[in-house]
Amino acid sequence: MRVFAFAWRALVRQPARSALAVLGVAAVGALLLDMLLLSEGLVLSMRELLDRMGFDVRVTAGDAPPDAGPAIANAAVASAAITALPEVRSVTAIRSEEAELEHRDRRVDTVFLGVGGAPRVWTILRGREPAGRGELVLNQYAADTLGLDPGGMVSVRAYCGDAEAPPPLAFRVSGVAELPFELPDAASAATRLGDLEEACGAPGAGRADFLAVTSAGDATGAAAAIAAARPDLRAFTNDELIGRVQQGSSTYFRQISTVLATITVAFALLLIAVLLTVSVNQRLGEIAALRAIGFSQRRVVVDVLCESALIVGLGGALSVPLGLLLAAWLDAILKRMPGIPIDMHFFVFEPQALVVHGLLLAATAVLAAAYPMRIVARLPIAATLRAEVIS
Amino acid sequence: MLVTRQLAELEGLAVGDEVRLAGDAEGARAQTFRIVGIYEPTPDPMRLGSVPRAVRLHLPDLLALTRDPGVPAGAEHVDAINIALVDPDDAEAFSRDLSARAPGALARPTSRAAGAGSTFVVLERFHAAIAAVTILAATVFLLALTIMLVNERRETAGVLRLIGLPARRILAQVLVEGLLVAGLGALFGLALALGSEALINRFFQWRYDTALVFVRITPRVAATCLAIAVPLGAAATVAASWVLLRPTAHNPRGGGPGSRRGGLRLARR
């Protein structure tokens, strides 16, 4: 503790220099923390969104992601076959189309979900689940844009990939809900799969984009059982989908974060080393005097290390709240990218990132102090004191 | 048909090869196509790391391949129609006109597709924000360093004041010195960036098997760097020196550390 107290006094003696050095480390540390949060943020956020939906296996007709591949024909038959498997608890068929909703001369384009089976994939905010025929739920944006509340009527014209859109159908709004993967400022609506098929003008079509499966506990086992029972379909666990995200869109941000984190650490290392070296060079006479009055070589070396640790430690502690604020700002910027759901985040806090942040800063403190410590360790006491007296 | 370079490499396809394509996974109604070229797909930063397995067919071939047996030829639909206007400046007016005449069709100029919310614009903003934080950190460190360096030259400044140089003259000298150091530093930084530009691009293009350009040092970027770095460096030097040479409230004409008496005190220290 004495060594730290001594190093603290050295810092306090040069308040402007010390304060600026701590602020500099805080800014660099904040950036470093953000890059660590960014490296896995998208993947963690996606996992949280997938887990929140309550399904652990997705079944599609091809290798493409659920929203981009071919549709599953005879989804009811596939659902029944999969539901019969002992590894499976429940199956929900999901189909997504585009639709135009109209209410009293107000129109809005929406993503229109049709869901067959239970459990539902949305969370009711107001009203109730669509129970009867011709009922749907709207997201908050759609309800606000159309000026609708639960109980109101809305005209739905669905565009289901055919050359001509079928005539519009009247639906009753049963509730306002939070739908999965909602986009900001975009309308969404959801109903039962049968009602969506009617809106598409093809009742009983039995098509689904994918089947969302809840396993009986073992997602991998359920996926294997589904693959064995229906070799024409592909079953992905949440982990496999996350793996795809890791190889796809999150790769860019992971690489960017790696590059920037490396540059940030190198930048901090260089600048702290320069600051400490200049500081030590300015105090050579003082250090030589301390050695002359009995301070050991080890003691003055540790003093320099403690000074570095104090600068980096104080700056590092300050960098955590600063980094979290910065992360919120950067996240808001990145979320303006098209197609990013409201609940998706690029910067997600995880304790492991904080540990790595601390370790990197600790390594920076030690490495930055290495050269000035060497200067102090090799300081010729008599010659330095003589040079000081003559100058 | 045309095949992406990545797909051709993955499947060992070459120009002149014949392949069979079908509209469904069972391979029903498959048709034979001849590969007449290999193309580099337009890179998409959001699909980095995924191999673009894509082919290009003539539209009638694609429609014939994907049409349901019950749908008569000519009744298919397409996702979008690209229109080249005689006068590109008419794009806005043409879009409005078309939207009014064909309800349900969404017409918009391609220039607007890359508007304020496009991926590239958002990424540019993100990088600008990162750069701003880096500049802030660098400025703080620079100030700390210049304060230490100015302290080191306290004696010199004192002697210069004692032999009659006014504080303004010393500040001007410091400013020129700061400009020179900042200018040289900025030029070194630019040279480093230019030198590493090709290296970074080659590494990431190899890593992701893409033609995407990751780093491009344009004259505008270089000018922006110089415009920020040089004044900032010079300003940090002058700000740190000003603390040493500024006039005080007791003597606005220079009675503080910058006065002759102050100079003597500085020289003694």
- Radius of gyration over C-alpha positions of chain B, nearest whole angstrom: 33 Å
Overall tally of structural domains of chain A? 2
Number of helices of chain B: 9
The secondary-structure element order of chain A is HHEHEEEEHEEEHEHEHHHHHH
Write down the overall geometry of chain B: elongated
Quote the beta fraction of chain B.
5-15%
Structure overview:
The complex is a heterodimer of chains A (391) and B (269). Chain A is of the alpha+beta class. Chain A contains twelve helices and ten strands. Chain A folds into two domains: 2-50 and 248-390, no CATH class; 57-216, no CATH class. Chain A has helices at 2-13, 15-53, 75-83, 140-146, 193-199, 219-229, 238-247, 249-282, 284-292, 297-334, 351-377, 381-390, and strands at 57-60, 88-103, 106-116, 123-127, 135-138, 153-159, 169-178, 187-192, 210-215, 234-237. A six-stranded mixed beta barrel of chain A has the order 2-3-8-5-7-6. In chain A, a hairpin with a 2-residue loop joins β2 and β3 (106-116). In chain A, α8 runs parallel beside α11 and α10 (297-334) runs antiparallel to α11 (351-377). Chain A is elongated, with a radius of gyration of 31 Å. The N and C termini of chain B lie far apart (83 Å). The longest helix of chain B has 42 residues, at 167-208. In chain B, the strands form two sheets. Chain B has a three-stranded mixed sheet with strand order 4-1-5. A two-stranded antiparallel sheet of chain B has the order 2-3. Chain B contains nine helices and five strands; from the N terminus they run βαββββαααααααα. The radius of gyration of chain B is 33 Å and the shape is elongated. Chain A binds chain B through residues 14, 16-17, 20-21, 23-24, 27-28, 30-31, 61-62, 70, 100, 161-163, 165, 232, 247-249, 251-252, 255, 260, 264, 267, 271, 274-275, 278-279, 282, 326, 329-330, 333-334, 336-338, and chain B through 24-26, 45-50, 71, 75-77, 104, 117-119, 122-123, 125-126, 129-130, 133-134, 136-138, 140-141, 143-145, 147-149, 151-152, 204, 207-208, 243.
